[in-house]
Amino acid sequence: MSDAILADIIGVIHALIVLFVVGGQALILLGWALGGTGGWLWTRYVWFRRAHLATIAVVMSIAAMGEWCPLTVWESELRIRAGQAGYEKGFIATWLDRLLYYEAPLEVFVVLYAAFTALVVWTYWKYPPKKRGE
User: Fold this and answer.
1) Phi/psi at 45 (nearest 5 deg)?
2) In contact, 14 and 75? CB cutoff 8 Å
3) Residue 45, SS3 per DSSP
4) Whose CA is closest to 71, among 3, 12, 113, 1?
5) CA separation, residue 134 to residues 32, 45, 75 (Å)
6) Concatenated DSSP letters for 95-119?
7) Tens digits of residue pLDDT in 41-72
8) pLDDT tens digits, residue range 93-129?
């Protein structure tokens, strides 16, 4: 498999992780707003909520250490090996720049990740997960 294809696969996986974290939080909040009943009970499933919390905790930990996400680094290195342009900044910063023309140093993203992590933790506490049947 070529480096370019591997880089594309990593990019898709990375985008899916971002979607899981951001979209998952939005859906959890929506489930909470709808009372967490009926078709929205899954927003309280313990396996989903723990995976969601763990994912943002890993993201926040990496950013707090001042490091770029390993997926960003790996994808960028593969793109460079394939003769393509690598990332000059992180995955999210690059895509925000492409989508919103937004540029910021890593420290800004650390603050954003910390705020989002705090929201996830607060939601976990105020709208706790439940095991099936509870």
Assistant:
1) -60, 130
2) yes
3) strand
4) 12
5) 16, 10, 42
6) HHHHHH-----HHHHHHHHHHHHHH
7) 889 999 999 999 999 999 999 989 988 889 88
8) 566 555 544 567 778 888 988 999 999 999 999 999 9
Question: Which positions ≥6 away from 124 have C-beta within 8 Å?
Answer: 49, 53
The tokens for 29 are 């909040």
Q: Which tokens sit at 134?
A: 């509870």
Distances (CA, A) of 22 to 34, 54, 71, 76, 92: 19, 13, 17, 23, 12
pTM value is 0.77
How long is the chain? 134
CA gap 36, 75 in Å, rounded? 38
Q: Name 91's Cβ contacts closer than 8 Å, sequence gap at least 6.
A: 11, 14, 18, 68, 69, 71, 72, 75
How much of the chain exceeds pLDDT 90, in percent? 39
Q: CA 85, CA 81: separation in Å to the nearest integer?
A: 9
The Cα 68–Cα 90 span in angstroms is: 6
DSSP classification of residue 127: S
Q: Which pLDDT belongs to residue 62? A: 93
